[in-house]
């Protein structure tokens, strides 16, 4: 059987592929064959949306062209026959014409790192192609399959809503409700009139050939590769014959299940049968019995059909429970059918999959679901329940209750259903059902996914909701006169509300006399925002392949702690395309890479100490071949004892050496406890967090073939550290190694020290003398690279009767992982930030680094301070509950004031925390909210609201040797344009934009005269890592100094020609042989004015960034679900260099902190393997998680003499303000517990997941669903 030609279109260009590979995805083909890198690889699992494209097809049945936003990472190339693909490059360009979608996301400040932006653009574009004037609700829903780790989503939504219906006020954004004082300014979102309107007549046309020809969808197709044959039948009989002939063949429709099974579960099939063009599988039939749906009907189409059917018929009680917004994941126009999954199908009657009858008048059916995140998340438990009553009675004739997630397969609660028959629909039934459900699901120690106590509580809660929903319907029916349902119960029936999001952003306007060319303080859009929006922004893996370039894949450990007995590479090296294997013996220089004082092996030599530790690397001609060969390397181990958790480390005393800086003491702790009226003790645990930058670790090394020179393009926050480590590994002096970084697709600390890809790539390129690149897949990156440190805080606090601190003793434990990396510095920062905003006269803080067999944890936004501050705020909450004092009063009583000293000796100068605190109280209407929430909680039994006020104080400081920055500024004599190179790395925080604004003021030039190309060690050596919120401070001052030098050189020419232009002065200086290039250097001054410095130590001047937040939440006590109704933030950023960027940093940091404290939960297997290794299992916040109302204000009149132009570092400080959500949730839980007679302190560990919220709301259901602890089986998950 010969192979067919694959014919499809990309951006209007016809593609004829004669050797279509069934294992190739559309994303791979776009990036590597067609060289269209705007479509990004973010996860490869269809869960992040970075790879979104629009796929269009002509639907002959409907006689229309249908457009679909699809995840290119899951779309098989062979499925595209007869289809048209549009990528971000195909809709607009900075070189030709921008599409309005691209323009608006840039003007609305909706891009930061920009890696996710093309996917956002294409999701919105596809919506507009289908509906040119969408509603705001449709705009918000369309992005449920797109993730962003930087922005916090608000500016993206706000910008794209300009495409929806007209403003409710004729004045648009100039509505009086948006006005502020003359000194303040509301961040503008571009109005529709500010950009080219959407013109459907100017959109790319659908290829006429695909519409005219009937052959694309009616021909049997065959495609073959070296391993797989793809068959596409067009008749049902052919499909059945093929499945009979190839019983092990995989049937593909949308490829969401098959694609993931093939990649991650090693479910390789030699034959794949595409059932997408079999007409019978697309049929929908409606008759008197119900609706019958073909297995290949997409869920989006399914939802349309149900809506149409309901509109056309009148049937009592008809409801349906399908999400009709574009389904996530979005693989292809063929949608997501019910795939051939024996785990799903086993145990279910056949008719469960193929239809649903119309309901009788006395029959009711409802569905329920609870997931880890509110959108685009698989259910922890879902349920479908139906009940049929005897005519005109409340006596059950028939009932069926089914659950997913309660066991290995979807399950019918047979005992419950059977025993309910003949019973009356009355309150006693709910108590009986709880007992029967326990028999149906007897709770093994760990069922599917674990969480069995929570799952059983959910099952009971779902039935409780079902019971009262049906009871409400029965009360409206015949024969039930006089029956009532308690409003406190019926109010629990709907899901938590989620209104259209809204918000305000307020900042100080620049003075009216500020020159127009002076950009400092202006809310300019990100300097690369248009390149982000058009897909033109180049990231490391976007670089074009050159002839002979190779690809690298890592060979990693499958044991957490073991001796390496042997490594067999013979099978791997024999595979097609494989060039070489590299291990520890192949390292030209040192196999030890140093991170500060910590050393660890590049390639494990004799022993592995964590699952995922790098043992070697395979190099091959393609990434697919390299990864395939890496999995074929056979390693024999001898297992050794393991330690995974902090509790295990404490029990086994598995610690890294204790250091003096891990202790902070101030005052007399014993005296403090003696003076206290009350002594409290407690502890709280915080889970870790994955960085989840959208661009994973990537590097590309190019040997130059002379004197060992090598050029390395990489995604790193610390080019000079990378340079030193590569040089050491290759045995070269540093002047032979050049590190080049254009931009990062997010960093957050995760690309500062963990060079798991960079060094192997450099070694391979050096040894083979050929270019080599390597980019980790998402699951590899999460497995290997580490994240935020899990944290345990134990404390003893003494207070007086009004809640004033007298003494505090605390011990904190960090799970460092298998190496110390920067953990000593992290624990030092944790202790320095522990006090947050509170004066504690007598304090002892001790930090302990736990040595475990998990991948080494590392720097993460906040650098340990958020974990420590959460412990401090939990102490405040415990004090408030114990003394029966409002927690905000306890905070006010102890809050720092000007000139107070912190425990580590810092004197607080320009302390604005009190101002931020009182302004956010006023802005949020806190006092009114407290009263409103109290009333809501009195009226609701099963839904509760909570509110919390949280301040923050964040130290902006580095180790002394890191407090330096450098820059190089060139002015070109021909046109006066300026090129800036500095030591900072652009990773989405807008650093380059701010640096251009600094130079704009210094040289008195408009911003269009400046350009920043990249960060490279050949131009600026000895760079300080970009992190610690110091990027603008260090590099901004360096640029300022360089510009001052240039301005000084030009002064004679300016004085001699005061009416001349910049270009005239530059030309005159050049003709006079004056250097138009200047270096700038800055070191933070040493100072002892406001800080206590122990004898023999040195330090530099430091400052704090302050802020405060108020959050209001609502929880569903029966499920643990929650929604953030409102958040108000007031932040002191000094004199902002760019308010739009600073507000973006505040919103983005808040969103990341919200994930840390609520929904992001890392889970490991009992063998130490990370299970939550991608967006399908690890949930970062999505669009539906941000506050419904999100208001951010920059503190007016603030300044900071210790940084460039009185600005402040802003990247990290706002993150902790998201703990206001955590404590608002705890406040709501307290109200729920009071309903059950539970008063006083209770423990809520972080993150406050749905499970923890539900189980903390103790009631009659949770008490009967306690976990089964009487077993000896190993747990499914480890809570580290």
TrEMBL record:
SUPFAM superfamilies: 2Fe-2S ferredoxin-like (SSF54292), CO dehydrogenase flavoprotein C-terminal domain-like (SSF55447), CO dehydrogenase ISP C-domain like (SSF47741), CO dehydrogenase molybdoprotein N-domain-like (SSF54665), FAD-binding/transporter-associated domain-like (SSF56176), Molybdenum cofactor-binding domain (SSF56003). GO terms for biological process: purine nucleobase catabolic process. [2Fe-2S] cluster 1 binds at residues 43, 48, 51, 73. Residues 4-91 form the 2Fe-2S ferredoxin-type domain. InterPro entries: 2Fe-2S-bd, 2Fe-2S-bd_dom_sf, 2Fe-2S_ferredoxin-like_sf, 2Fe-2S_ferredoxin-type, 2Fe2S_fd_BS, Ald_Oxase/Xan_DH_a/b, Ald_Oxase/Xan_DH_a/b_sf, Ald_Oxase/xanthine_DH-like. Its EC number is 1.17.1.4. Pfam families: Ald_Xan_dh_C (PF01315), CO_deh_flav_C (PF03450), FAD_binding_5 (PF00941), Fer2 (PF00111), Fer2_2 (PF01799), MoCoBD_1 (PF02738), MoCoBD_2 (PF20256). Its main location: other. GO terms for molecular function: 2 iron, 2 sulfur cluster binding; FAD binding; iron ion binding; xanthine dehydrogenase activity. Keywords: 2Fe-2S, FAD, Flavoprotein, Iron, Iron-sulfur, Metal-binding, Molybdenum, NAD, Oxidoreductase, Peroxisome. It catalyses: hypoxanthine + NAD(+) + H2O = xanthine + NADH + H(+); xanthine + NAD(+) + H2O = urate + NADH + H(+). Residues 223-311 form the FAD-binding PCMH-type domain. Substrate binds at residues 752, 863. Its cofactor is [2Fe-2S] cluster; Mo-molybdopterin; FAD. This is xanthine dehydrogenase. The gene is LOC112042293.
């Amino acid at each position: 059987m010969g192979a067919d030609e694959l014919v499809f279109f990309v951006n209007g260009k016809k593609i004829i592929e004669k050797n279509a590979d069934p294992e190739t995805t559309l994303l791979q083909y776009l990036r590597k064959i067609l060289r269209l890198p705007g479509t990004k690889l973010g996860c490869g699992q269809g869960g992040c949306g970075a790879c979104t494209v629009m796929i269009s097809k002509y639907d002959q049945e409907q006689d229309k062209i249908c457009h679909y936003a699809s995840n290119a990472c899951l779309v098989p190339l062979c499925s595209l026959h007869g289809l048209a693909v549009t990528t971000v490059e195909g809709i607009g360009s900075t070189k030709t014409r921008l599409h309005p979608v691209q323009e608006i996301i840039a003007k609305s400040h909706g891009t930061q790192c920009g890696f996710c932006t093309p996917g956002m653009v294409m999701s919105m574009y596809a919506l507009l192609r289908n509906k040119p004037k969408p509603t705001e609700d449709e705009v918000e829903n369309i992005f449920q399959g797109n993730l962003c780790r930087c922005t916090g989503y608000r500016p993206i939504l706000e910008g794209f809503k300009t495409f929806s219906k007209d403003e409710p006020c004729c004045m648009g954004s100039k509505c009086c409700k948006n006005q502020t004082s003359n000194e303040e300014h509301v961040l503008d979102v571009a109005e529709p009139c500010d950009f080219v309107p959407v013109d459907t007549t100017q959109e790319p046309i659908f290829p006429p050939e695909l519409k005219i020809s009937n052959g694309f969808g009616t021909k049997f197709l065959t495609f073959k590769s070296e391993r797989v044959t793809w068959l596409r039948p067009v008749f049902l009989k052919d499909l059945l014959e093929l499945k009979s002939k190839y019983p092990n063949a995989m049937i593909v429709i949308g490829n969401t299940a098959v694609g993931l099974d093939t990649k991650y579960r090693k479910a390789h099939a030699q034959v794949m049968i595409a059932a997408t063009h079999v007409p019978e599988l697309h049929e929908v039939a409606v008759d008197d019995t119900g609706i019958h749906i073909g297995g290949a009907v997409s869920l989006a189409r399914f939802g349309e059909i149900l809506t149409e059917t309901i509109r056309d018929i009148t049937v009592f009680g008809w409801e349906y429970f399908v999400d009709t917004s574009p389904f996530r994941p979005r693989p292809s126009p063929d949608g997501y059918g019910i795939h051939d999954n024996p785990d799903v199908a086993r145990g279910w009657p056949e008719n469960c999959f193929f239809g649903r009858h119309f309901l009788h008048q006395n029959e009711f059916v409802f569905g329920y679901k609870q997931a880890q995140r509110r959108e685009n998340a698989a259910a922890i438990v879902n349920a479908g329940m139906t009940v049929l009553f005897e005519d005109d009675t409340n006596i059950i004739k028939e009932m069926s209750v089914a659950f997913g997630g309660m066991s290995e397969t979807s399950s019918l609660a047979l005992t419950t259903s059977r025993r309910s028959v003949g019973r009356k629909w009355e309150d006693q039934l709910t108590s009986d059902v709880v007992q029967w459900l326990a028999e149906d699901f007897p709770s093994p120690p760990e069922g599917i996914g674990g969480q069995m106590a929570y799952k059983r509580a959910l099952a009971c809660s779902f039935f409780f909701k079902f019971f009262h929903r049906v009871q409400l319907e029965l009360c409206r029916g015949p024969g039930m006169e006089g029956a009532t349902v308690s409003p406190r119960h019926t109010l629990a029936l709907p899901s938590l509300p989620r209104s259209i999001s809204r918000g305000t952003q307020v900042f100080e306007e620049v003075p009216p006399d500020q020159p127009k060319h002076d950009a400092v303080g202006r809310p300019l859009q990100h300097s690369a925002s248009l390149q982000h929006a058009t897909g033109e922004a180049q990231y490391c893996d976007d670089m074009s392949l050159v002839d002979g370039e190779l690809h690298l894949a890592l060979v990693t450990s499958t044991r957490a702690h073991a001796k390496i007995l042997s490594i067999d590479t013979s099978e791997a090296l024999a595979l097609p395309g494989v060039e070489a294997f590299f291990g520890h013996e192949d390292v030209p220089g040192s196999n030890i890479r140093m991170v500060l004082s910590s050393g660890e092996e590049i390639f494990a030599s004799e022993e592995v100490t964590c699952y995922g530790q790098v043992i070697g690397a395979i190099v091959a001609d393609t990434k697919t071949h390299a990864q395939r060969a890496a999995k074929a390397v056979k390693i024999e181990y001898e297992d050794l004892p393991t330690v995974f958790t902090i509790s295990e480390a404490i029990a086994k005393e598995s610690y890294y050496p204790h250091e003096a800086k891990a202790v902070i003491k101030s005052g007399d702790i014993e005296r403090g406890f003696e003076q206290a009226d009350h002594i409290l003790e407690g502890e709280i645990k915080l889970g870790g967090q994955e960085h989840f930058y959208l661009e994973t670790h990537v590097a590309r090394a190019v040997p130059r073939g002379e004197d060992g020179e090598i050029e390395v393009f990489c995604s790193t926050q610390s080019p000079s550290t990378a340079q030193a480590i590569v040089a050491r590994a290759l045995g070269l002096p540093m002047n032979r190694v050049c590190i080049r970084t254009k931009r990062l697709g997010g960093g957050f600390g995760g690309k500062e020290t963990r060079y798991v890809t960079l060094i192997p790539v450099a070694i391979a390129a050096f040894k083979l003398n050929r270019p080599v690149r390597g980019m980790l897949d998402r699951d590899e990156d999460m497995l290997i690279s580490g994240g935020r440190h899990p944290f345990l805080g134990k404390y003893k606090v003494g207070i007086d009767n009004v809640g004033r601190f007298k003494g505090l003793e605390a011990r904190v434990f960090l799970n460092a992982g298998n190496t110390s990396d920067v953990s000593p510095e992290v624990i030092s920062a944790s202790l320095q930030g522990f006090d947050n905003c509170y004066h504690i006269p007598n304090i002892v803080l001790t930090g302990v680094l736990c040595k475990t067999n998990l991948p080494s944890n590392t720097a993460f936004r906040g650098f340990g301070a958020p974990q420590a501050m959460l412990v401090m705020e939990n102490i405040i909450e415990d004090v408030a509950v114990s003394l029966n004092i409002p927690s905000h009063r306890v905070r006010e009583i102890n809050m720092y004031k000007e000139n107070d000293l912190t425990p580590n000796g810092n004197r607080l100068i320009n302390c604005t925390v009190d101002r931020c605190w009182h302004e956010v109280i006023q802005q949020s209407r806190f006092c009114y909210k407290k009263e409103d929430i109290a009333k809501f909680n009195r009226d609701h039994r099963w839904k509760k609201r909570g509110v919390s006020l949280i301040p923050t104080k964040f130290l902006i400081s580095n180790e002394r040797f890191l407090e330096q920055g450098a820059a190089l500024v060139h002015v070109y004599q021909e046109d006066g344009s300026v090129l800036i190179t500095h030591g900072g790395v652009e990773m989405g925080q807008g650093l380059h934009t701010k640096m251009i604004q600094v130079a704009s003021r210094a040289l008195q030039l408009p911003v269009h005269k400046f350009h920043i190309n990249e960060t490279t060690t050949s131009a600026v050596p000895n760079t300080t890592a970009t992190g610690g919120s110091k990027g603008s401070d260090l590099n901004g001052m360096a640029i300022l100094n360089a510009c001052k030098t240039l301005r000084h050189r030009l002064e004679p020419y300016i004085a001699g020609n005061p009416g001349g232009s910049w270009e005239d002065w530059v030309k005159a200086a050049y003709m006079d042989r004056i250097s138009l290039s200047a270096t700038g250097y800055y070191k933070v001054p040493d100072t002892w004015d406001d800080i206590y410095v122990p004898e023999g130590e040195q330090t530099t001047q430091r400052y704090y960034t302050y802020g405060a937040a108020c959050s209001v939440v609502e929880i569903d006590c029966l499920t643990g679900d929650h929604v953030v109704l409102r958040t108000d933030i007031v932040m002191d950023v000094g004199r902002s260099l760019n308010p739009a960027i600073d507000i973006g940093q505040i919103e983005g940091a808040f969103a990341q902190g919200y994930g840390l404290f609520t929904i992001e939960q890392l889970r490991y297997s009992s063998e130490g393997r990370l299970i939550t290794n991608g967006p399908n299992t690890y949930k970062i916040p999505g669009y539906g998680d941000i506050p419904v109302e999100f208001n951010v204000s920059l503190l007016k009149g603030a300044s900071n003499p210790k940084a460039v132009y009185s600005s402040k570092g802003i990247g990290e400080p706002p993150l902790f303000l998201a703990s206001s959500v955590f404590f608002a949730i705890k406040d709501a839980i307290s109200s729920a517990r009071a309903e059950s007679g539970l008063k006083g302190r209770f423990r809520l560990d972080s993150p406050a997941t749905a499970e923890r919220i539900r189980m903390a709301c103790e009631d009659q259901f949770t008490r009967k669903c306690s976990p089964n602890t009487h077993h000896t089986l190993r747990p499914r998950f480890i809570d580290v």
